[in-house]
Design goal:
Blueprint (H helix, E strand, L loop, with lengths): L12 H27 L7 H22 L10 E3 L9 E5 L8 H10 L5 H5 L5 H8 L7 E5 L8 H9 L9 E2 L17 H15 L2 H6 L7 E4 L5 H10 L6 E5 L8 E5 L2 H21 L1
Parallel strand pairs: 2-3, 2-5, 3-4, 5-6
Antiparallel strand pairs: 1-7, 6-7
């Protein structure tokens, strides 16, 4: 039945089957009654004709009942929750950005010199500080991190590693899980762009969340959250496509207000299906007009 969720019929299956059988039964009775009435030239006085009229009336009454009691499907939209209500995770998939106007060594120096009271200053480092914030949110239980990098952002992977090993930030340093190849695909992306990049990132994220891969780390899908704060827009799209699953949580660190709050995002298969249907309907309508 799980395959029917995107069609909106994942609930009350017995009720749907019952209504379908009743409708077929009454439709059969109504069809037979119409045929007999025509053959008998509508003899109103006979009990048989009255019964036939009753069957027809009952069928159409049932149809009207179904029509007026049919609930209109609600349009689903991504739901946002404040980071404070979000649960911690033991694994985290990170999209690593390439900061500008600062080198990896400069960032590493800031991390090494920082105390716990300096965390907010590290969070303010453009393009990578938000990643630190997203990681530290789960610092109590975090064990494994998959940093997805491009050739340009790969040098900053070392900054993530140094941050995770800082004892004042993490009691037990999480491991970088990308050192092992996942489904013969490392987390360092080959140079590509456009649709090819989206497909590449999608495969990498899908391989990370593969059951056989997570089993090695003693994790389930629910244990590993995707942080979509970093990376380019193209990489973010690919990562989300690879993580569309009801059991997978997604987060990002908001940057507009400067508060660096961790926000959880719900992007389920139902939402994607709903948006796809809307797109196809709009596209078909436009094609007819043209």
């Amino acid at each position: 039945m799980s395959d029917l969720k995107v069609l909106g019929i994942d609930k009350n299956i017995p009720s749907i089957i019952f209504k379908g059988l009743v409708t077929l039964f009454l439709m059969g009775m109504a069809t037979t009654s119409i045929s007999e009435i025509i053959n008998e030239l509508i003899d109103i006085q006979s009990y048989k004709s009255l019964f036939n009229f009753f069957c027809i009336l009952l069928f159409f009454s049932w149809i009207m009942f179904l029509v007026y009691n049919q609930k209109q499907p609600e349009r689903t939209v991504p739901t946002l929750k404040p980071g404070k209500a979000q649960t911690v995770h033991r694994g985290l998939v990170l999209l690593v950005s390439r900061p500008k106007n600062i080198t990896p060594n400069e960032i590493i120096k800031k991390i090494e010199d920082a105390s716990h009271d300096d965390l907010d200053e590290l969070f303010k480092i453009p393009s990578i500080g938000q990643l630190f914030r997203g990681l530290h949110k789960h610092q109590e239980y975090l064990k494994f991190v998959w940093p997805i990098t491009t050739e340009d952002s790969y040098p900053f992977r070392k900054c993530i590693e140094v941050f995770l090993k800082k004892k004042v930030f993490f009691k037990k340093a999480p491991q970088l899980a990308d050192e092992k190849e996942i489904g013969n695909k490392p987390c360092k992306l080959e140079r590509c762009d456009g649709v090819e990049l989206i497909e590449t990132v999608k495969k990498v994220v899908s391989n990370i969340y593969a059951e056989e891969n997570l089993h090695v780390f003693g994790l389930s899908k629910a244990d590993v959250i995707l942080d979509m704060t970093g990376g380019t827009k193209t990489i973010t799209v690919g990562a989300i496509f690879g993580a569309i699953d009801e059991g997978i949580d997604i987060q990002y660190v908001e940057q507009m207000t400067g508060k660096n709050e961790v926000v959880s995002v719900s992007i389920t298969p139902e939402i994607v299906f709903d948006k796809t249907v809307n797109y196809l309907l709009a596209f078909t309508s436009e094609k007819k007009k043209s």
